[in-house]
Amino acid sequence: MTINSIEEANAALLPYVPLVAQLTGKDTTLERIKPLMELLGNPQDQIKVIHIAGTSGKTSTAYYMSAMLTAAGQKTGLTISPHVDSVSERVQINGLALDDITFCNELSEFLDIIQAAEQQPSYFELLYAFAIWVFAKYEVDYAVVETGVGGLYDATNVVTRADKICVITDIGFDHTHLLGKNLTDIATQKAGIIHDRNAVFTYRQADEILDVIKQSASDHKAQLQVVDEPDDIEHLASMPDYQLHNWILAKHVFDYVATQDSLQPLTSEVLAKTQELQIPARMDIRLLNGKTIVMDGAHNVQKMTAFINSFKHLYPNTRPAIMIALKDDKEYEALTPILTALTDTIITTTFNTSQDLPIVSMDSAVLARAFSDKGATNVQSIPDQDQAVETLLSSPSEVCIITGSFYLLSQVRGKEQLK
């Protein structure tokens, strides 16, 4: 197979998307990914891995972790999901996605190899295996790996090396149809990434969550470090509060790795540079024709609360106009009061794509009614994204927010109106 462009790459990957719907849920298992990795020579066994699970903050923590390791002179791979602007974001080395030509050449070779697999992988499984295969081929020193959903049965959990470092970010309610209806069950899935003698890092969390993590660490004779956020974090950086929360966790992990593997220490100037990293669709701020546009993929209560708190810290006493779209399975009733407490002006819209999970956009009219029922007085349902963006930009509000599903952010970030 010869792939010559990202468009052709997306077309070549398209047949694997339906498998997500067929295999996710009762058929979520490691039994497909294991033979695939064996076919590839088990590249996951050839590299050191920092494995990140959790409900909120996984991607940001992964980006900060990658930036710190790269700044310390280490060749660092990073794979995240979902991607925002391009599928090439799934395979990053030293903080940069593979250039389009390299990505397409490597994907061409990879797809030829996996044709011999007895069972074809889902879209997420394929891209995860591809990233690890590339990292081993390019001989990275470390691979920073974000889980897709959960951890225990997530494809990324084929990494079982004793020197794996596990990072568990804040845990809350998300993907409950797959992970469980209570925090204990969800934490059990997230803590499933812990294997024998791993080092494990997590923030101090609710007892029902932390007890699960402690038990899993004990069962696997793993070394658990519970991180407490400093009381006076404001002096550490001018970055948004919730991103600073993620950065501090990554810094604790980096300090451990640096000591264990004798890496060069990072100066305060270099650390400050890692805090300036703009993570796609996370508190992504743009200035357009006198308006401030803030884009953030806050799609559950935990993420939305953290985002809005950080937004209010940056823009106190501001009543923004908000554009939002959510996945159809989101518990939107819990999100609506958070936003209606901030503004009366809300535009609901839709998205029309998905990547790693079977996703359907929520009906914008239903979402609009939910905001109206919570007291918002200027609510519009505009299913067409382009029209929704135009309406947002023409609102009298000087500050506008685009939030909700990452699939919405993925589509709107490249629109001409927002460049």
Polypeptide structure, described:
There is one protein chain. This protein is α/β, with parallel strands linked by helices. The protein is 40% helix and 15% strand. It has 16 helices and 14 strands. The protein has helices spanning 6-13, 17-23, 33-39, 58-71, 100-114, 123-137, 176-179, 183-190, 207-219, 241-261, 268-275, 301-314, 332-340, 364-373, 385-393, 406-412; strands at residues 48-53, 76-79, 92-93, 96-97, 142-146, 165-168, 199-203, 223-227, 284-288, 291-296, 321-325, 345-348, 378-381, 399-404. The chain has an eight-stranded mixed sheet, with helices on both faces. It has a six-stranded mixed sheet with strand order 9-10-14-11-12-13, sandwiched between helices. A hairpin with a 2-residue loop joins strand 9 (284-288) and strand 10 (291-296). Helix 4 (58-71) packs antiparallel against helix 11 and helix 12 runs parallel beside helix 13 (332-340). The longest helix has 21 residues, at 241-261. The radius of gyration is 21 Å and the shape is globular.
Main attributes of the structure:
419 residues; alpha/beta; 8-stranded mixed beta sheet; 6-stranded mixed beta sheet; 16 helices; 14 strands; 15% strand; globular
Compact overview of the structure:
By secondary structure, the chain is α/β, with parallel strands linked by helices. The protein has helices spanning about 5-15, 15-25, 35-40, 60-70, 100-115, 125-135, 175-180, 185-190, 205-220, 240-260, 270-275, 300-315, 330-340, 365-375, 385-395, 405-410; strands spanning about 50-55, 75-80, 90-95, 95, 140-145, 165-170, 200-205, 225, 285-290, 290-295, 320-325, 345-350, 380, 400-405.
